[in-house]
Design goal:
alpha/beta, five-stranded antiparallel sheet, OB fold (Dihydrolipoamide Acetyltransferase, E2P), 2 domains, 7 helices, elongated
Length: 245
């Protein structure tokens, strides 16, 4: 089954992130984006909209109030920068409640919840900019120090983002490789390769986890702990600890 969906958010950047994520799922068909709930009314009432990605804090009207007063109620996934509305969101049978900044892993889990049978969704192939792989490919090339360097995935412990750069920490290498890129570029392409994003700055190798304690992860060969961010915590525990994804 395909789901026709719309995005309602008053922030252009938030819309762009959701449009990018939606485009990776063949079962999601984006039929429109709107910066105001009132502008979306006509589409909701005259088209077959199955799902709304709906921001809560908007100038015209609160997203929850807007949804509660719709005469036709598609499925809804709420998005917001605040967690205070989560209970209310679930009281009106929202599929999920995503706190910004929304990671791809957390979005993936929300869309899985949408599926009635809980089946995993096929993700469209990431763009070349995201360093996509063939299923059998176990390495990446990164640009560093005027050269393209081949890195075996099994040697990567942590990817650490710094604005326009990423530090790639390797096993038995005291000095990380620094490449001009963003952490988001690696997020989707490495997800199916045994890596998971745990923080807005960190992607880690699941195989290199030594222990997990109090929302922190201790990685093999590294002294410091990596903090699990609130936006990534639920997905991380479902995937890594509970093995449900």
């Amino acid at each position: 089954m395909n789901y026709k969906c719309i995005v309602i958010d008053d922030e252009t950047l938030a819309i762009d992130v959701l449009v990018d994520y939606i485009g990776k799922f063949p079962v999601l068909e984006l039929v429109g984006t709107f910066d105001s709930p009132l502008k979306a009314m006509n589409t909701i009432l005259t088209n077959s909209v199955d799902l709304i990605f709906l921001d809560i804090n908007m100038p015209d009207i609160n997203g929850i109030s807007f949804y509660e007063n719709l005469p036709i109620k598609p499925k809804v996934i709420f998005t917001t920068a605040y967690s205070d509305f989560a209970v209310k969101g679930f009281e009106i049978n929202a599929i999920d409640y995503l706190v910004k900044p929304i990671s791809f892993e957390r979005f993936f889990m929300a869309v899985n919840k949408l599926m009635a049978n809980g089946a995993h969704l096929p993700v469209a192939q990431a763009s070349p900019m995201n360093f996509s792989f063939n299923e059998s490919q176990d390495y990446i090339f990164v640009r560093a120090e005027y050269a393209s360097i081949k890195i075996n995935l099994k040697d990567i412990v942590i990817l650490e983002g710094y604005k326009d750069y990423v530090k790639i920490h390797l096993v038995d290498e005291p000095k990380p490789i620094l490449t001009l890129s963003s952490i988001k570029h690696y997020e989707t392409s490495l997800f199916s390769k045994g890596f998971v994003r745990v923080h807005k700055r960190h992607i880690i190798s699941i195989d290199k986890i030594e222990n997990i304690s109090r929302n922190r992860v201790k990685m093999k060969t590294k002294e410091e702990f990596i903090l699990i961010g609130n936006s990534y915590k639920d997905f991380f525990y479902e995937l890594v600890v509970n093995n449900k994804i």
